[in-house]
Amino acid sequence: MLERQENLPVEPDTGNRDWVIGNVETPTGRVPRVSTHWSWRDRLGAVAVRWNIGRRRYRVHPGLYAVGSPTAESPVLATANYKLSFDTLRGVLDGLDAWLLVVDTKGINVWCAAGKGTFGTEELIQRITVTEVAKVASAAILVLPQLAAPGVAAHEVRRRTGIRVVYGPVRASDLAAFLRAGMHATPAMRRVQFTLLDRLAVAPVELVQRLATALLIMLVFFLGAGVGRHGYRLAMEQWPAIATAVWANFLAGIVLTPALLPWLLGRSFALKGAEIGIVTGSGLWLWTRYGLMEGVAVVLLGVAACSFLGLMFTGSTTYTSASGVRRELRWALPLQIAGVVAGFVLWLMARWK
Amino acid sequence: MVYLKDVVTLRLDCDACIGCGRCLEVCPHGVFVLEADKCRIVDRDACMECGACARNCPVNALWVKNGVGCAVGILNSAFGRKSSCCGESQACCCGDPKAESPAEK
Predict the structure, then answer these.
(1) Which of A62, A76, A88, A151 has minimal Cβ neighbours within 10 Å of its Cβ?
(2) Contact A315/B93, CB-based, under 8 Å?
(3) What percent of chain A has pLDDT over 90?
(4) Of the candidates B22, B66, B71, which has its C-beta nearest A311's C-beta?
């Protein structure tokens, strides 16, 4: 069911191909040889996609590539056609001889594509057939990234193509050690981690993608600040404080919650986010010296917003299950909505005092 | 870091298991161990329902309602919206509703 027949042909590479540094002659024709070093262009591209610039077009052409001077016995390493995945793989292969089989995942990384079925059994078999890997590397073993496993049934691939399939390590950086050890992965190589850097890696993309929402929320509060006993006026003197409050919650929910994740209490992401919201809201209350009603409103709004952003972060983690997120959504979402409504009403009421 | 307690849908049929160890190889969270040529679940709460074990089990001894643990994707599919995947609009990799169905063979 996950395996969807994706139509060839595929979209072309984006831009420059300066990472191709020659050709390798094979029984089925020339295979491009790729560099194991990143050019300034590769580095720039990697930074840009982290900020959501050109991320959806950051692809390489699916097919077979070579690193070093591979022979019929050299391993075939499969990867996604998201250029960052491809670059990460070739970047760790300095001094090695291998074939690279780039699967058409529509420019999505290995794990996400496997979860969606784009990096699936059918696409892999089709790519193996089209590139005639069995003729180029007749004695080779196909090394799949371990994180392709949600989409690929290795025994199916073996049965239908005759190629031996093994799962490599989770991280490309362990690949050289894995190959040196005779294709043996240590338990640590098989485990997914969630380091501080992993947790913050998607923060820039999240910030960029939620920017419009944050601006909209700010606008609502700018306009709402004008109501009061006096009727309506544009209360521009309040705008700096409102902007500060919105940005503080926005940054806290998207950067602080992921950064402090292991140290926040409880297992629930809604709860972890709410904790950050209490701190942020209380901090704003102290800083601006609001009255009681407005202070409570600011804390309520902060808790609801950060709790919601905490839940939204579940999609970027490496360990949350769909069943767990569903359970959280059922109790947390109504509370978050109630918090926003109560907070906003209190905040408006404070204008009449 | 471990997620919520007693929530995952992972099921193992010990009688069907042939002890090939493929699930130990593909599981990113060390959920399984091999004991006396049979697979055993040792860390159930660590399961993220990615479905890798079920998909790669040659004898269908494993079952999990697989999906992506992503609030955005789950909300999007609950509201019947199509563009819920990372290639299109999200930073995460929320699967489309199709990816939420059980990993049957």
Answers:
(1) A88
(2) yes
(3) 75
(4) B71
- Please write the tens of the pLDDT for every residue from A172-197: 999 999 999 999 999 999 999 999 99
Dump pLDDT digits (tens) for B28-38: 999 999 998 88
Q: For chain A, give the longest Cα–Cα distance.
A: 85
CB contact under 8 A, A329 and B71: yes
Question: Which pLDDT does position A13 carry in this prediction?
Answer: 54
The pLDDT-based confidence of A230 (bands split at 50, 70, 90) is: confident
> If you measure CA to CA, which chain B residue comes closest to A50?
B91
Mean pLDDT calculated for residue range B49-65: 94
**Number of domains into which chain A is organized:** 2
Q: Print the domain residue range for A164.
A: 20-190
> Measured between CA atoms, how close is A25 to chain B, in angstroms?
34
How distant, in Å, are the alpha carbons of A185, A188, A344, B49 from that of B82? 38, 37, 31, 22
For residue B1, the chain A residues in CB contact (below 8 A) are 194, 261-262, 319
Residues A238, A340: one domain?
A: yes
| Matching CATH number, B8-67, of 3.30.70.20, 3.30.930.10, 3.40.190.10, 3.30.1330.30 | 3.30.70.20
| In the predicted structure, residue A24 carries a pLDDT above the cut 70 | yes
Interface check A50 vs B, CB under 8 A: no
Q: Judged by CB atoms within 8 Å, which residues 94-123 of A form the interface with B? A: 106-109, 111-117
**Is residue B88's pLDDT more than 80?**
no
Question: Is residue A4 assigned to a domain?
Answer: no
- The full DSSP string for B29-86 is T--EEEETTEEEES-GGG-----HHHHH-TT--EE-------HHHHHHHHTT-S--ST
Mean pLDDT for A246-268 is 96
Contact A111, A144 (CB under 8 A): no
- CA distances to A67, A135, A156, B83 from A139, rounded to whole Å, are 17, 9, 19, 42
Q: A167 in contact with B at a CB cutoff of 8 Å?
A: yes
